[in-house]
Amino acid sequence: MLDPALVSELISRALRRGGAFADVFCERRRTIAFRLQDGAIHEASVGVTLGVGVRVIAGESAGYAYSDDLSMPALYEAADAAGLVARGAPSGGIAGVAIAAHDGNAPLYDASQGQAGGDRYAELLARADVAARRYDPHVVAVNAHVSDEIQEVWIANSDGLFVHDVRPLVTLGVQVIATHEKERGSGYAGDGGRTSIAYFDATTPEALATDAARIAVVNSTAIPAPAGEMAMIVGAGGGGVLLHEAVGHGLESDFNRRGTSLYSGRVGERVASELVTIYDDGNLACERGSVTVDDEGVPGQHKVLVENGVLRGYMQDRLNAKLMGVAPTGSGRRQSFRFLPQPRMCNTYMPGGESAFDEIVASTQRGIYAKSFAGGQVEISKGDFVFMVGEGYLVENGKIGPAIRNATIVGNGPDAMTKVVAVAGDARLARRHYTCGKGGQYVPVGVGMPSVKISSITVGGTGAGS
Amino acid sequence: MNEREALDVAAAAVGLAQAAGASEAEVTVSASRRFHVEARETAIARLEQSTGKALRGRVLIDGRKATLSTSDLTRDGLRAEVERCVTMAAHVEPDPAAGLPETFTAERPPLDLYDEAIAARDSDAKVEDVLALERLVRAADARVTNSSGSHYVDAVTVTAIANSAGFGGAYTTTRASRSTAPVALDGDVRRTAHYGTSARHFDELEALESIARTAAARATEMFGARKPPTAQTAVIFERDVAASMLEDIFAALSAANVATANSWLAGRTNAPVGSDLVTILDDGLLPRRLGSSPFDGEGVPTRRTVAIERGVLRSYLYDTYYARKLGAHTTGNSNGAGIGTNNFYLEPGSGSLEELIAATPRGVLVLDTIGFATEHASGTYSRGARGFWIENGERAYPIDECTIAGSFLDILGAVDAVAGDLRPDAAVVSPSFRVGRMTVSGT
């Protein structure tokens, strides 16, 4: 797409007014998506995202400009606009930056299969629809979508880097609505990853649709969630959203360099129960958050964020790593060429512990079992978070009871992590369908965890108070 | 890219689609010149300026619909993508409701959506705005010790739509916004607040001092917050939080959700769904407003629609497709990709937020929520919340780490006071209002 000579020229031009570092991010993404509704293939979509972003870093300042027009005048204009951030005197006499193409890392994913024909996507959705309706007569609506994208990136910088990465990503999601008397319930199941559409040969649309229908039926018969403080058992896999929100965002280096996170300056300190260990890993095969190289050309890494309750490190992009005097961790990610990179999570998970799930349930007198979360959000400075429970149950007298409807959990990151009193041995990664939003940018991520018990947390429902 | 050039690209793409076999086609081209500067303390943290273009379109082949979106507007790139789109449409089921609207109009109401003062504003003045915000927000309260950044963003956007039925139209808008996010420190507790507003005209932008003062107050007023008791009590939604609740009500009014069994308002036309203080409107024709446009994403003229009138559901909000599906007429709410708002708002009552608080013996004032747990099928609302506990008409103490929850039918049915403090600084806005009784979960 861009040859090293042209990139070298753009980078030199961007640095004409000064600046310590410049990079160029070129992207070509091709997407195919199909959507099913009312038992029929409703719509097909195709898309192309093509453009170049140029960044200049001068001290703590970043200048950025992008162009979706790849003509030379437009690229020069972008390089000039990015360079405006360097407001000092022109540094003058910057020689051409030497950039050489090199092989980079062995890719983490195989994009060689390319995209399929339209009939393949239509068939997957039709099978999901049939399976969901067959599951239970109370299923009244099925919406399903499948998407298949290949993102190709070329990243070069003033240190001489030039890398190319090809990133496939497929997703199949099924949303089911069921009714029971006057109540409605919805259920969602999605999976996929950084692989080709052949993934759904083994992970079938029937399996996903059946699970979505099961959750919808469960939720349609659910009782109102209780309200007040009680214990919470977080389910293995999808419960990992808890780590992502309660801890992960607070360990992104932009917040910590600026001193706006409650975890700022606390590396080496106890921030959680000693049962808590949290990793963020960009190197897991097929996971949505995996990166052969991140969007700044840094290889993906396995990072220890919290080890036995002690904070070990932050997730770093280049800008914040440089300003904090550490190495980047392969955490610089962006939604597209239209955005500056930010430090972001890849795949965040907790390894298994010593307890058994059944013992954890048996030890709980009153609480809820949040088998999966439908989403969450955190406020970085104080660490307050909320989660929406996707599938949840009451726990009473050591037994799992009836399903509960639309529970919201509120808490505080360090407080909840200190109240982790049991970690089961059943750690696993969640199904691959999570997307994380930060500062208006959305990137695919992975989460995972074992079943975990938190001794006390606030559950917001409309049912009887404690 | 000016209106004429954008319209030419859109018309050319329609021609390419027809040449590739489409029986109907519609293409929207938007071109935007965007500026964004962020400051922290006395330095610029980022300076972004770009000119971007995007094309999106839909093609129909005998009722089979496919859409495309691309930033590659080269002739060859566009032709290849249009052809790929037409190829994919063959795998879609024919749908008699799919297709272009029947009627268009050449009328262009004077909406005054463009302001040369924003388009021509000097970069240095914009930079000075954010440096001033950083100074002002720290000066507003000694406890403000840090910030997540102050921002100035503006954009000049050209939107052009052409279709195979002969419609062609374009308009240009401006928009600017200023915001800041102070971090206040009290002991070892940090509190971040975010506050900012937008406008289409420079002279309607909120003053820097006012933004800084409000943001600093939001960051510091929560110190000493604790969990409230779990209770059934009155809840006042301050106007910005109220606006976020209106986004959920809009989703339930969207005919796309009504048609797919994903709305608690389905089947309730002409039935009471709220108290008689609840009147909710969608209006695309308000001059200078952020949600106004002469025509919607399908080229249909925008209009004023009373969705809920004194508590009674009167109309869902439609695009052409879902209007046909449900036997209604489009309300001009297509956003090109689905159904969107124009200016969507709760009709204001009278009085200020302070008067509303003074008239509340006991309850909760909600100033901020986090989370997005709305189950549209059942109409269940639940959020993490912070704000104040109210006792005897006064703010008794700040609260956080609690949730508020209820069903929308119960919430709207229990609206017993609406203030007059609506301010049009976004497309979806609301005055503050009070719900007589909701579940608050704390200790």
Give an account of the 3D structure:
The complex is a heterodimer of chains A (466) and B (443). Chain A has helices at 4-14, 72-83, 118-135, 199-202, 205-220, 241-246, 253-257, 318-324, 357-362, 413-418; strands at 21-37, 40-58, 61-67, 139-157, 162-180, 183-193, 223-224, 228-234, 278-281, 302-307, 310-311, 332-333, 342-343, 347-349, 366-378, 384-396, 399-405, 408-412, 420-423, 428-429, 435-438, 441-444, 446-449, 452-460. Chain A has a six-stranded antiparallel sheet with strand order 3-2-1-4-5-6. Chain A has a six-stranded mixed sheet with strand order 11-10-9-14-23-20. Chain A has a five-stranded mixed beta barrel with strand order 8-15-16-18-24. The radius of gyration of chain A is 24 Å and the shape is globular. The longest helix of chain A is centred in the N-terminal third of the chain and has 18 residues, at 118-135. In chain A, 20% of the residues lie in helices and 40% in strands. Chain A has ten helices and 24 strands. Chain A is an alpha+beta fold and 466 residues long. With 443 residues, chain B is of the alpha+beta class. Helices cover 24% and strands 38% of the residues of chain B. Chain B has helices at 3-19, 75-89, 116-119, 123-140, 208-220, 239-253, 255-259, 320-326, 353-358, 408-413; strands spanning 24-40, 43-61, 64-70, 144-163, 168-186, 189-192, 195-199, 231-237, 280-283, 304-309, 312-313, 343-346, 362-375, 380-391, 394-407, 415-418, 428-429, 433-441. In chain B, the strands form three sheets. In chain B, strands 1, 2, 3, 4, 5, 6 and 7 form a seven-stranded antiparallel sheet that branches. In chain B, strands 8-13-14-15-18 form a five-stranded mixed β-barrel. In chain B, strands 11-10-9-12-17 form a five-stranded mixed sheet, covered by helices on one side. In chain B, α4 (123-140) packs parallel to α5 (208-220). The model of chain B has no long low-confidence stretch (mean pLDDT 95).
How would the blueprint of this fold be written?
The complex is a heterodimer of chains A (466) and B (443).
Chain A: H1 4-14, E1 21-37, E2 40-58, E3 61-67, H2 72-83, H3 118-135, E4 139-157, E5 162-180, E6 183-193, H4 199-202, H5 205-220, E7 223-224, E8 228-234, H6 241-246, H7 253-257, E9 278-281, E10 302-307, E11 310-311, H8 318-324, E12 332-333, E13 342-343, E14 347-349, H9 357-362, E15 366-378, E16 384-396, E17 399-405, E18 408-412, H10 413-418, E19 420-423, E20 428-429, E21 435-438, E22 441-444, E23 446-449, E24 452-460
Helix pairs in contact in A: 1-2, 3-5
Chain B: H1 3-19, E1 24-40, E2 43-61, E3 64-70, H2 75-89, H3 116-119, H4 123-140, E4 144-163, E5 168-186, E6 189-192, E7 195-199, H5 208-220, E8 231-237, H6 239-253, H7 255-259, E9 280-283, E10 304-309, E11 312-313, H8 320-326, E12 343-346, H9 353-358, E13 362-375, E14 380-391, E15 394-407, H10 408-413, E16 415-418, E17 428-429, E18 433-441
Parallel strand pairs in B: 8-13, 12-17
Antiparallel strand pairs in B: 1-2, 1-4, 2-3, 4-5, 5-6, 5-7, 8-18, 9-10, 9-12, 10-11, 13-14, 14-15, 15-18, 16-18
Helix pairs in contact in B: 4-5
